[in-house]
Amino acid sequence: MAARSLYQLQCVKSVLKQGKLVNPSYVRSNSTLSRPFTNRTNVTERVSGGVSTVPRWRYVSARDLNDLKGAYAHAPYSRLNGKAIPYRSELKHAKRIVVKLGSAVITRDDECGLALGRLASIVEQVSELHAEGHEMLIVTSGAVAFGKQRLRHEIAMSQSMRQSMRDARARNGNTMKFLEPRACAAAGQSGLMALYDSMFSQYGITCAQVLVTKPDFYNDDNRRNLQSTISELLRMNIVPILNANDAVAPPPEPDKDLLGVISVKDNDSLAARLAAEVQADLLCLLSDVDGIYTAPPGEDSSKLIDTYYPGIQSTIKFGQKSRVGMGGMESKVRAAQWALERGTAVVIANGCRQGSGQAIIDIVSGRKTGTFFTEAKVSSVTVETQAENARNGGRVLSSLTADQRSNIISHLANLLEERKASILAANQKDMDVARQQGNLSGPMLSRLALSAGKLTNLADGLRQIAASSHQNLDRVLKRIQVADGMELRQITVPIGVLMVIFESRPDCLPQVAALAIASGNGLLLKGGKEATYSNEYLHGLVQESLDLYNAKDAISLLHCMECR
Predict the structure, then answer these.
(1) Is residue 381 classed exposed, middle or buried when 0-12, 13-18 and 19+ CB atoms within 10 A define those classes?
(2) 241-288 tens-digit pLDDT
(3) Cβ atoms of 189 and 243 closer than 8 Å
């Protein structure tokens, strides 16, 4: 470790020169990922000649970066403001991630062993994220369930034939009374940990077991020791695997300091506690359900909640707990809310559905998996709602006459000329931001820029579309005489809902909108973020034109956060 630390320090010294402000989180050396220097403020590195404190932010130049043996990853997310990650699209920047595996994920459906396939997939995902530079921690369940299965087998082997036959007739008889949860945890913990160690070793990763109890979070010395242990394990590229020490744990009781909100009586609460203690950026709670539903999933009125924000809990009806776990969905929601209030983003997702992809990878990638907990209340309609509105608006367009659709396009062309000054002002904001950021090339800036001449040509083009739009719908392409008095016709009809993605070219928006209106289609538009102000203003003109015939929702503009 001293050699690796010395190498890291040498790399930092080699780039402490004039240049751009970056955060060198990871350095690759001979295909081995060295851990990040820090994601907080400063870090003290032990080297052969003593101790050196390395600052978090450093000025480096592009040439200095190329001199390193590898490349630096993007700057990880840091909770400098004490707030949780507000949007799914930013989860990819989460540095410290806690993954909680429920008993239903760990054990097989028949409760006769561990789900080795699911567990191997989870280990593979954690290993992949670990290799990318994320600091991974696992809170695992399954020790009690695993120990129960092992003890049940041992008891069955030690019974006489008469006892076995009697227990088969009465499952609540002598066999069950021996399966005390603490004994099951003691019997199952070693086997569960051995399995983790074997799987992670296939990826060249070392894991470590950490057993905690409720008093560990109340005693200051124990808390400091726990934090120190986990920090040291993460510094050494080791994946900590935590579990409640159920073999010696006292009966659960409400936490006085939390007014009974949560307690370390199940691993959902343990994961929330741990995430808060280690200042994790993301907590993934994996169970056997797809996320939070408005009602138990078996009910007809049940609907999956994509984004959960404080204040909607009263609209949720919770069901029963999982088949082998100690907590239920209500326990997960309470734990998630508690962690969210302390600056950790939370996602509750399905970790055991077959063919559902890689849940953990999908969560970190920002895909819509499970229920995302955020303090940022959704102020706009969801993409699904926009798509549904576009479908309904498209039907309104297709029901209009050709002259009415032509009038909408002509009105839009007139607005482009009448509101020319406002359009150019909005475009100037985009140009100022682009020049300030300096991430657009000359040709891209030319595409982004609008001018009075461009708008005039654009308005003329829209009028041409309006003039030629009368034969777009209900035009007969082919006739077939099937029988006397029966004719089969092939005519043009709307497609339904279109989606068009365009780069930093705001002049594309009215052109594509005019074509969709002329063909009676709903439309979803996704423009480049470089043209945010221009696109929003132009979309407002499109909606104003559509409102002439109550078809305002036929064309929607999607934003970056909504499309993730």
Answers:
(1) middle
(2) 998 887 776 655 544 433 333 344 467 888 888 898 899 999 999 988
(3) yes
